[in-house]
Amino acid sequence: MQTPKSRPGSLDVPQKLSPATPRTGRKLKTLGSDSDSMTSPSPVSKTLKDKSPKIVDRRSPRSPAIEKKRPSRASELEPQLAQLQEELKKAKDQLSSSESCKRRAQQEAEETKKQLAAMSAKLEETQKQLKELSDSEEARVQELRKISQDRDRVWQSELEAVQKQHSMDCAAMASALNEIQRLKIQLDRVCESEASQAKHAESAHAEIQSLRVELAETLGLVEKLKNQLNDSRESEDLALEEFGRAQMLLEVVKTTEETLKSEHANALESYKSLLAELEQSKNRVNSLEELVCNLQDDLAKSHKITANPPDDIKALCESGECDQSEKLKAELNNLKKESNQLRDALEAAERRYQDQSLDSTLQIRNAYELVEHAKSESCQREAELEANLKEYSAEVEELKTKLIEKENALQSISCENLKAQNKLLAERETELEMELETSESILEDLKASLLEKETRLKCITEENEQLKSEIMKREIERSRASGEALALAETAKAAEREALMKLGYLTEEADKSCRKAGLLSSLMQLKPLTRDGSRIKED
C-alpha cells in the first residue's frame, strides 16, 4: 500500500526542476544583451582616440591660442564624464543582476537540499518496502536484497559523489560571491573616486565660468571706458573747437580793441579839437564879453557926453546900440549853443569809449575763462580716464592670471585622476584575468564531472533494463507468483522513477553549470569594457 504513495512524491521533483532549464536561457539572453550594451561604447572610444592629439597638443608649451582653447577643453570633458557615469550605471546594473543570480543559486541550492532529503526519505521507504517483501519470499528476497544492496551501494556512492560535488559547488559559489563582493567594493571605490573627480571638475568649471563672467564684466567696463575715452576725446575736440572759437573771439576782441583804440584815439583827437573849439569859443565869448563891456563903457561915456543931445542923435544912438546889442546877444547865444553841443558830444564820446572798453574787457575775460575752464576739464577727464584704464587693465591681467592658474590646476587634477583610473583598471584587469582562469578550470572540472555522471546514469539505466528483463523472465517462468512479480515490477518502476529523479537532479546541476558559464561569460565581457574605459580615460 505504500508504493503507490511514493509515486506522486517521486514525480513531484522533476515537475519542480523542469522550469529551471528555461531560466538559464533567459539569464544568458539578458547577460548577452548586457554585454552587447556594455561593448557598444566602442565608437565613442574611437572618436576619443581621434580627439586625443588635441589633448597631447595642450600639454605642449603655452601660447595665447592654446590658452583661448582651454575653456573648450572643459566643454569637451563634460560629455566624456557623462559617458563614464553611464558606464558606471551599467556596471551597477550588472552587479545587481549578478546579485539576483546569486540569490537564485542559493534558492536552487536549498531546493537541491530539499530534494536530497526527499531522496533519502524515499530510500528509507524503499528499504522498508524491501523488508516487507522479505516476509513473502526469502529466496527471491535474498537475491533482490543483494541486488538492492548493490544498487544502494551504487546509489550511496553516487550520493556521496553528488554531495562532494555539491560541497565543491558551494565552495566555488562562496568564492565567486566573495570575488563579486570584492569587485563591488572596488567598483564602489571607483565610483566614489569618479564622483569626487566629477565634483572637482564641476567646481573648477564653476570657477572658470565665474572667471569668464568677471572677464566679460571687465571687458564691458573696458569698452565703457573706451567709449568714455572716445566721448572725452570728442569733448576734447569740442573743447578745442571752442578754444578755437575763443581764439577767434580773442582775435575779434583784439581787432575790436584795436578799432576801439583807434576810435578812442579819434575820439581823443575830436575831444581835443572840441576842447580847442571850446577854448576858441570861450576866447570868443571872453572877447565878446570884453567888447560888450567896452561897448557898455562907451555907452556910459556917450551918455555922459551927450546928456542933452538932440532927438535925432538920440534916436540914432539908441537904434545903433540896439542893433549892436542884439547882434552880440545873438552871437553869444550861438556860441553858448555850440559850446553846449560840443560838451554833449564830448560826454557822449566819453561814455561810448567807456562802454566799449568795458565790453571789450569783459569779452576778453570771458573768453580767457572759457579757454582755461575747458583746458582744466579736459586735463582732469584725461587723468581720470587714464587712471581708470590702468586700474581695469590691472584687474583684467589679474583675472587672466587666475584663469590660467585654475586651468593648470584642472589639468593637473585631470592627469592625476587619469593616472589613478589607469592604475585601478590595470589592477582590475589582472584580477579579472586570474578569476577567469580559475573559473575556466572550474568549468572544465564541472563538465568532466557531468560527463562522468551521464555515463553512470547510462550504466544504471542499462542495469535497470537488465533487471527488468530478468524480472519478466522470472514472471514467465513462475506464473504462480504473479502477485510477487507485480510487486517486483512496481519496485522496478519506483527505481526507474528514482533514476528519473536522479536525472532531473543532474539536469539541475547542468543548469547550474550553465549559469556559472553565463556568469563567467559576463565577466569575460567586462574585461573589454574595462579596456575601453581605460582607453577613453587615457584619451
UniProtKB/TrEMBL annotation:
Positions of region (Disordered): 1-116
Basic and acidic residues bias: start-end ranges: 47-76, 100-114
Record flagged with keyword Coiled coil: yes
InterPro entries per record: ICR
Source species, domain of life: Eukaryota
Keywords, sorted A to Z: Coiled coil
Listed Polar residues bias regions: 32-45
Annotated coiled-coil segments of the chain: 173-291, 325-477
Assigned protein family: Belongs to the ICR family.
Designated name of the protein: Interactor of constitutive active ROPs 2, chloroplastic
Species whose genome carries this gene: Sesamum radiatum
